[in-house]
Amino acid sequence: MSVGRQPSMADVALAAGVSAQTVSRALRGSPNVNPETRQRVLAAVDQLGYRFNNAAKMLSSGRSHTIGLIVLQSGGYYSRSAVTAGVEAGAGEAGYAVSIATIARLDTGLMERALAKLADQGVDGIVIAVPLISVTQKMEDITRDIPTVTVDGSRTAGARVLGIDQRAAGRVATQHLLDLGHRQVWHVAGPDEWIEARQRREGWRECLTAAGIEAPPVLEGDWSPASGYRQGQILAMIPEVTAVFAASDEMAFGIIRALRERGRSVPGHVSIVSVDDIELAAYCAPPLTTVRQDFYACGTAAVALLLQGAGEPAVEPPVLAVRESTAQPSVTDR
Amino acid sequence: MSVGRQPSMADVALAAGVSAQTVSRALRGSPNVNPETRQRVLAAVDQLGYRFNNAAKMLSSGRSHTIGLIVLQSGGYYSRSAVTAGVEAGAGEAGYAVSIATIARLDTGLMERALAKLADQGVDGIVIAVPLISVTQKMEDITRDIPTVTVDGSRTAGARVLGIDQRAAGRVATQHLLDLGHRQVWHVAGPDEWIEARQRREGWRECLTAAGIEAPPVLEGDWSPASGYRQGQILAMIPEVTAVFAASDEMAFGIIRALRERGRSVPGHVSIVSVDDIELAAYCAPPLTTVRQDFYACGTAAVALLLQGAGEPAVEPPVLAVRESTAQPSVTDR
DNA sequence: CGAGCCTATGTTACCGATGCCATCTGTAAC
DNA sequence: GTTACAGATGGCATCGGTAACATAGGCTCG
């Protein structure tokens, strides 16, 4: 009605003929409220278009019903953005708002600032969805005060870590190539600062070692197709390369392009397997054999862990989607 | 020191030997504070690890320094996620936090709930980054109270709309195919509820009309490669198809796959152009001719518009990246 | 029938900052 | 030597809720 300002609880109380406190109780579903009174309150709320003031609620209750999420700005890293969606969904379901802090790149200073920003906002908890490697004192200070869950990152004081077993993904991918008959599997890894990259690499190495194969030197990209292309150019020069495990689908496509440009067909000469199973993986040429992991579930699990403090939830095992980028080595190569 | 609770302004004031009011002034950079006093205050802040309470600030000042962002949950739609990144960057630069509300799909009810949720949080402004088509009374109520910018959506009361000229993208793409000598251009559009989809389709139609060509029936996908694949299967059955304009890169790859499976090569038999220029566009086979638009800038512009209320900022024109998915029609087709 | 207790509601203090006004000091102006 | 005024600071009310305690009525039970 009046254009003055948003109606407050006092206004509602007046309209309903009760005290503000009763309004508060009625709205929060306190058991000790007469159903009829509650009806009156709700009617008044509806009529006035009352909307409770989160700041005030937060100030007096000390809780904001908001969780902070730290993500990387660049949208390119598939698994992380899936985690983000999961976090949003999980938080939304629990009635929590999500406040995001993006950092432009992996950098300790930016990370500190993002944490501080969220802390300033009074978030009730923080999900760190970037691979935190080094932990500073400042970070410790914040994560000691605010419950924090790190998705695949280093442990900080009081912060829990939710891990997806990226090693398993590396093993599954590598084993698939070995099973096809390849004698050696090369690897184009992600940046070393990324836990995912490291663990996938470790899984690859473990698998080779278990098969009695000495791992070849690791090539490193930055997740982008462009970096895959560059590493692919190198791989194309090495005649004995018949199988490659790429740490991400996007890099895999870059590698494939470079190989083909140099006359090495995929999967004819070289088989490629990667990780992520992005939507395009099945539709580009050739359709990519890739390992799928449920990062979305990982996001919801992170929120659950944060809010309920439940124990480490079960994580789905990685699943290999076999498509056309992998094949048995050609006879001459065997 | 004490584990009790976060230090408050009063604690800082005590430590610095001044009043809480002076602390407030010092921290906010009020001009009327003795530099020496300010030093003392800052020292105390530093020593106590003081962190201001956003809720309290918000309650008393009435402003939250937070802007709300409404996005679609599904990460697949390239242009929207680029907008998101832009919004985050722009807001961060202006010292604003970003609170996100995701909606699972385009649905009026979900949209209302998302708006209400952000309003409850007391955001200072809202950026709607989903294509809002129908506007309800409830939405009007909220956007009348809170400054809102819609990125490519319908206008609501008091909400400004920031548009990217998607028509231009459609025209540029279509014209490119005509310039190559194609006599007809087919179109696989995005879902009709999406403004982008509609505008791109209009641009395509305008361009054909200007060239005196009657537009063929429109095929419709849902942005996903899978939907592109399905429409591609249909296109493959129509012999006279030599040129296709796809509304997104992902659909384009699906179309290409379907065409090739049916023996129609790209660009040999059919040329394909699309919109987005995702990273993979240049690295998949064939590299995709596509129209790039600066959605990131669109996001930062939305924030600028929201905060400064500046006039409609200039939008970069779309740029065509010509790659290998388009070519002149083969002689027999001409 | 009064003690004890439970239910429904009202009262009051407070969360932590800011806005407004009051105060105090020094200094320039008349 | 007042007056005027600006700069620096403090006091107090206030934002809109919630926690803690107080109160009033109705019920059970010995």
UniProtKB/TrEMBL annotation, chains A, B:
<keyword id="KW-0805">Transcription regulation</keyword>
<keyword id="KW-0238">DNA-binding</keyword>
<protein>
    <submittedName>
        <fullName>Transcriptional regulator</fullName>
    </submittedName>
</protein>
<dbReference type="InterPro" id="IPR046335">
    <property type="entry name" value="LacI/GalR-like_sensor"/>
</dbReference>
<dbReference type="InterPro" id="IPR010982">
    <property type="entry name" value="Lambda_DNA-bd_dom_sf"/>
</dbReference>
<dbReference type="InterPro" id="IPR000843">
    <property type="entry name" value="HTH_LacI"/>
</dbReference>
<feature type="domain" description="HTH lacI-type">
    <location>
        <begin position="7"/>
        <end position="61"/>
    </location>
</feature>
<keyword id="KW-0804">Transcription</keyword>
<dbReference type="Pfam" id="PF00356">
    <property type="entry name" value="LacI"/>
</dbReference>
<dbReference type="Pfam" id="PF13377">
    <property type="entry name" value="Peripla_BP_3"/>
</dbReference>
<dbReference type="InterPro" id="IPR028082">
    <property type="entry name" value="Peripla_BP_I"/>
</dbReference>
